[in-house]
Design brief:
alpha+beta; 3 domains; 3-stranded antiparallel beta sheet; two-stranded antiparallel ribbon; 6 helices; flat
Length: 174
């Protein structure tokens, strides 16, 4: 057998080991465990979602290496199910019970999670966005369709309609 000794954790003991609060909160480590703990970058552990007190790894869903595909339903934090068109099984069930086919679900850019946003809230948000952005409304077979256009306020845009209004009223400005 090789001579590598297993890492030793001395729970609650104030023995010869060292504390590594970013690795295992409250425990002393020595030997190979301590050598390994020294090599771990606390920023990496934090980024990876390590909780040293609960000793639970919860990788952030959007992490480039450790992440997972989230359900596309807005506000849903479940993992997307591989056969459900980019949504979780629960949202897939909800949407199919509402009459959508699997293909329609897969073609949606983003779905709305159940009971998180009401139609009145969506209209309120659109009205709010419409104060700052051009908002195009068109009829579609599924009801009104909204398209967010350019920012209304003047930030130096060359195509801003303020230039045309200014040119049109140039003769009245002294
Ligand atoms: Zn979902």
């Amino acid at each position: 057998m090789s001579g590598a000794a297993p890492a030793r954790v001395l729970e609650g003991a104030a023995g010869p080991g060292r504390l590594f609060p970013d690795v295992l909160s409250g425990d002393h480590l020595d030997g190979p465990g301590a050598r390994l703990a020294v090599l771990l970058d606390p920023a990496f552990l934090t980024e990876a979602g390590w909780d040293p007190a609960a000793r639970v790894l919860s990788p952030p869903a959007g992490h480039r290496l450790l992440g997972r595909e989230l359900c596309r339903a807005g506000g849903c934090t479940a993992s997307a199910h591989h056969n459900c068109g980019g949504v979780c099984y629960r949202c897939f069930t909800r949407l199919t019970e509402a009459g959508m086919t699997a293909r329609q679900i897969a073609e949606l850019a983003t779905c709305v999670a159940a009971e998180t946003v009401t139609p009145a809230e969506v209209l309120g948000r659109l009205r709010h966005l419409g104060q700052d952005f051009e908002l195009d409304v068109a009829d579609s077979r599924d009801g009104p369709a909204y398209r967010l256009g350019n920012f209304k306020a003047f930030l130096g845009q060359r195509e801003h309609d303020r230039h045309q209004r200014f040119a049109a009223s140039r003769g009245t400005v002294s």
